[in-house]
Amino acid sequence: MLDLEMKFCRFEAEVTVAEGHRIEGYASLFGACDQGGDVVAQGAYARSLQRLQSEGRSVKMLWQHDPAQPIGIWEEVREDGRGLFVKGRLLEDVSRAREAKALIEAGAIDGLSIGYRTVKSRKSEAGHRVLTELELWEVSLVTFPMLPSARVAAKGDAPEEVMLRDLASVLEDARRNLADS
């Protein structure tokens, strides 16, 4: 796993636990600058996701980027106009997955992070590294995400509240990016 980079993402009420063990949310948002000065461009994951699918492999769900601690299965990983959407399930027979579920519901764990290798990038006029192609390896549940606007939600948030918080977060990130330009 040489050259593995990690991109932490915290979204306002974005990752939720439902039906006891199902989780979904955005692991990455396009155009949002993280604390390391990186911005993921739309389409950055496309080749990697196509390659994984053609090879019959999948993006791994890990606990805190530890390859010795898989805690579930991502059943859907896709790009949309907003970012990298993930949907999967925690494996209830895995003790760390049961702990993760309890920690998410209590609000103690509230982040997602991607593990990847940068294939292509460029510098923006504002001096940010724009990641244009990434080789995605895993998406982890984490304690400390890099993107401050990304956060996991406890079960029970109303979809409208989640959507409004997400919109406010994206607009705030855009405002900051414009101010930095």
From TrEMBL:
SUPFAM superfamilies: Herpes virus serine proteinase, assemblin. InterPro entries: Peptidase_S78_dom, Prohead_protease. Pfam families: Peptidase_S78. GO terms for biological process: proteolysis. Residues 19-155 form the Prohead serine protease domain. GO terms for molecular function: peptidase activity. Keywords: Hydrolase, Protease, Viral release from host cell. This is Prohead serine protease domain-containing protein. It comes from Allosediminivita pacifica.
